[in-house]
Amino acid sequence: MKRYFMIALSALVLTVGCKQTPKNSMTYRPLGNTGLEVSELSIGCGGFEKLDTAGSIALMDMALDSGMNYIDIYDANPKTRSNIGAALKGRRDKMIIQGHIGTIFKEGQHSRTRDVEETKQGFEDLLERLGTDHIEVGMIHITDSPDEWNELEGSPFLDYVFQLKKEGKIQHIGVSSHNAEVALMAAKSGWIEVIMFSLNPAFDRLRGGAIPWEEGAMENLQGGIDPVRVELYDYCATHHIGITVMKTFGGGGRLLDQKTSPLGVAFTPEQCIAYCLAKPCIATCILGVDNLEELKADLHYLHATEAEKDYTAVMQPAKADKGGQCTYCNHCSPCPQGIPIAKVNEMLDKAQNEGLTPELQAKYDALPHHASECTHCGSCMERCPFGVDVPVKMDEAAKVFGK
User: Fold this and answer.
1) Do 209 and 174 fall within a single domain?
2) Neighbours of 228 (CB within 10 A)
3) What are the tens digits of pLDDT across the range 169-193?
4) Which of 283, 301, 272, 289 lies closest to 204, judged by CA?
5) Whole-model pTM?
């Protein structure tokens, strides 16, 4: 605990060194040793899939006008990438891009790959659709087990990543992970410059490098921060390795609702963001937003009072969720049957929490494949970073929606 308080104290020192434009506006932080200064709030790519070109430009306008200069693009969906490319046209230099290596769009679904030829095609597609010849941060997409990390060493996939940096197509190498042990291994590798990591008040209380919401994980929530995470944050702060935060609100905004919060209490967006930014190793919180209204609401953080940012009053966990909860991250894709698992789970949760409406039923009916088509093959569960029992969820969805 003493070490944790030292890290918190270091955060106060770091804040003094952050660059800030006039009062109530964006603050900029160093992205580790990369030489890049990034906005403490940044934008994720998820919403761009749901927008048209005009809507994408409007969302980017608001992000840039707020002072955001960093974007994460993990999604290989051509629509997502093309919309972002259109939104950045003529102002590419205004946004630092964190793009993922090892993501492809296959048979209509976002997929992770370590196949070099597939990886090359996916990365070149990213550059082409963004209308650029390089990205600033090349993020090795989702590595969630020590075995997966060890398999990177000396692999053709990693050779390709190094080649991209040598050619200038990426300027810095990063890795994304939900596992604290893997993230720490990456930090200590000597060649990882940026880590994209899932971090929030609930995930920090997991133990032993557990992946959030894997089976039984949330049953072991403790009152203090996980020692593995403490070491990770301390090491990154000491060695100037930047962390970009995903799942700031718990994945799907679960921490914002008492009914779904793993801690049994609802946090505000301001409290979640302040919690993450208090750590000296954090460069930016990546915000997943679907529209202008959500982005505007999250940007209230820039004008929030210290009282609004104070998360200490809600830090005592009242209960622990049983785990296995989908966060709609799409890491389970692709489904051999073509089922859009994340969307089905999102609709199922909405139906169970708010009731099945004719509008929700119509959206479900319009999906290209439905939960009843699940064959229980289990391939999705091998890729799920949160231990979701997908076949059980598909059975539940089939009962709720009738197919």
Assistant:
1) yes
2) 18
3) 999 999 999 999 999 999 999 999 9
4) 272
5) 0.78
